[in-house]
Amino acid sequence: MKILILGAHGQVGWELARTLPALAPVDAWDRASADLEDLDGLAAKVRRAAPAIIVNAAAYTDVDRAESEPGRAYRVNAEAVEVLSACAKELDGYLIHYSTDYVFDGTKESPYVETDRPNPLGVYGQTKLAGEEAIRRSGCRHLLFRTSWVFAARGRNFPRTILRRAAEEEELRIVEDQFGAPTRASLIAGITRRALERVVDGKPGEDGPAGTYHIASRGETSWYEYARFLLEEALKHGYKTRLRGEGILPIPTSEFPRPAMRPGNSRLNTGKLESWLGVTPEPWQTGVAAAVREIVSEREPVP
After folding, report:
1. What is the pLDDT of residue 155?
2. Could you write out the DSSP letters of every residue in 148-192?
């Protein structure tokens, strides 16, 4: 059995490439190895590799730029996913794919469950939803994981941005009326491995329930409280900053206009996943604190 990972240099893909080799041999492809905009080339290359399991951690993720590049976003997030679905079906394999809370409009007052009706607010969410629908239409065996507010100690993400700006600026204005659960990339990779263990070790005819599951850390926070927590953790470890807690100012979304609308509620209910795998996701604070320690260790501590 061979596992193929696409998007191996992204936050989740990098963690998958570290985690999944313990389960089976892995081919890890980055953007240079597989161009998701070259649909014919992608299909040919996947067929030649002939993996038993395709894990697609690649995506067009620039939420704001997607508003001005809808064609590129659709090609990567929907058409390429349709190609991967067809390959999985043809190879009698399994497709693992990651989607997003942005398929919802964020107006629900409680955490979203898998059966809630999607209603994306912008191009990014629309293209990710189109990718979901392509997988379901294909009839391939699949696991589709929606997640939200993904971060890691590496890559481009909210913790690294806030800590960089905290070292340079004395004031930050952060949105306080959008809520979700920061979810560590390594948590997503670990749960993916556990799910694949079920798939691989399942009894004949019981290769794991195909379908959609939500992965998110426990608890919830706002971007504003998230930023305050990041700063508090960084200061504990001697991180040099110009910013202090009083310099982080809460603002409503209306005062921070961006090309793409964001859902106000990004909370995802993980009960279905917990019931199937018997897992309890870590609190969001645990993962964020660990990432901050790693980020701070890259810089010279305060004397």
Report:
1. 87
2. -SEE-SSSS-HHHHHHHHHHH-S-EEEE-S-EE--EEHHHHHHHH
pLDDT cut 70: percent of the chain above it:
95
pLDDT digits 0-9 by tens, 126-162 = 999 999 999 999 999 999 999 999 999 988 899 999 9
Where do runs of H (alpha helix) occur along the chain? 11-19, 39-49, 70-74, 80-90, 123-138, 158-168, 185-201, 223-236, 271-277, 284-296
Is the separation of the CB atoms in 248 and 166 below 8 Å?
Answer: no
Q: Would you state the pLDDT for residue 302?
A: 40
Catalytic residue, from 74, 124, 213, 226: name it: 124
Please report the pLDDT score of residue 243 as a whole number. 87
Class of domain 3-155+182-218+267-282: alpha beta
Let me know if 124 is a catalytic residue. yes
Domain boundaries, the chain: 3-155+182-218+267-282
